[in-house]
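Quick question about two entries, pasted in order.
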Amino acid sequence: MSKAIRIGLPLLGAVTVLSGWYWGLFVAPPDREMGDVQRLMYAHVPAVWMALICSTLNFGSSLTYLFNGKSSADALAEASAEVGLLFGVYGVMLGAIWGKPTWGVYWTWDPRLTSAAVMLVAYMGYMALRKFVDDPEKRARWSAIVGILAFADIPIVWFSVRWWKSLHQIQSSPRTVDPELVLPLRWNSFGLFFVMLAFLVFRYAIARSRIREESAPPEVLSHQRVGLASTGTHR
């Protein structure tokens, strides 16, 4: 991994997100109907978007693994599932905080929230499967199948507010939102996207390293450990 990616990408994400939060909290005007509560949108909405992007990436990687069996696709599927779960939990928690002053409760089992909860449970199950299956090939194949099945919930999360009666508002667009609110939302979205990419890069590297170690012959691992030990002793 190049130094530019290892240092530059997290730094770019941190700077963009922090400046976006400042913009959303102190510069952007309050919403006409919700007031200052609406400012949670600048963190909540991008987080959910990142979760959906990671779920889509997991689906594509899982499908790719079933077709070509490459360990790189399995590693990317693992990384995207874990990062997506992280952003999903973060987004849903912020949504619950938003729901209390808006709807009067932190949680209600309306279609959007229920489908989001199903999404989180599905990817928790995916990560649990990866943890408890020892055989690398079985783990990769079974995880790919679970990743494809879990993705079936993603369109439901997105379209639930249009398909069924929901407390959650229908998706907005730049044409229906004041430009003073759209610009900070976009800025925060790009910032969290950079952060998500940084997480993916590091998590993918970890997954690749573990897969290589699992597939290496025992004598190779033994030589590697001896080499590391001798290097540490020399230092």
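Here is the second entry:
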Amino acid sequence: LVDSIKVPISNAILLHKITDSLRLRVGIQVVGTNHAEVRLGTVNGGTSALLEFKPAAHGDTTGVTVSTQAPVSTTPVGSAITSALADYLIVLKGTIAEPPGILALGGVPGRRIYFSFNLPSQIVDSSTVVRATLMLTQVPNPFSPDARDSAKVYPQAVVAGSAVTDVGRALELLGAPGTAGLDTTHAFAPADSGLRQFEMVQLVRSWSSQLAAGTTRALAMRSSIEGTSGATYWFFSSEAPLALRPKVRLTYAPRRSAGNP
């Protein structure tokens, strides 16, 4: 639902902030017996929170006008990204922590999953990979916001070179969704469970040393509603029982040289 919320602010507090050139910070807390979620827009999105007040000189009852101010930032000075930093999210208490042996995707602050693959060179470099499937087992997350609302979860190729050793940085260096033959059509809800399969044959083929020397053999999993919803998906990690761990199923054939049967 799209609606607006008006939060009254004490006149004395606002006057104190203006007079002493102090920052005004307003927090919103949602309390209830069920899961709830409030989404606020940003300056760049055109739906930012606005401060509306009626300024007037002391004792003046005729010159009262309505003034509306959007969030602003005084730093960085003269930077092209000042507008992008005019309003931003500070998470005081994030999404509920996942249980041991679980990989979490989405939530607040948003999280992605990083998979690094150590595939035998005789398969990647010396064989023809016919099919490659990433297999993940989803665990139902009943504590997630929008637990029964479906959204897309999909893989993206990590394009960071092997010189990038920081996983957080590598998760920012991703190919566009759908590139390298990675499917982006899988949609399910955080409360769902079961086996999820993602085809990645073209990506595995691109990892051949003849084609991509120095490329990191990795991919990232992310949610299409990352940054706009607290929905959190859970999957079994490599610490789970063997049958439930993430795995890649490969189908390949020996590569024939010219002139050999």
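Reply: DSSP finds four helices and eleven strands in the chain. The chain has a mean pLDDT of 84. Hope that helps.
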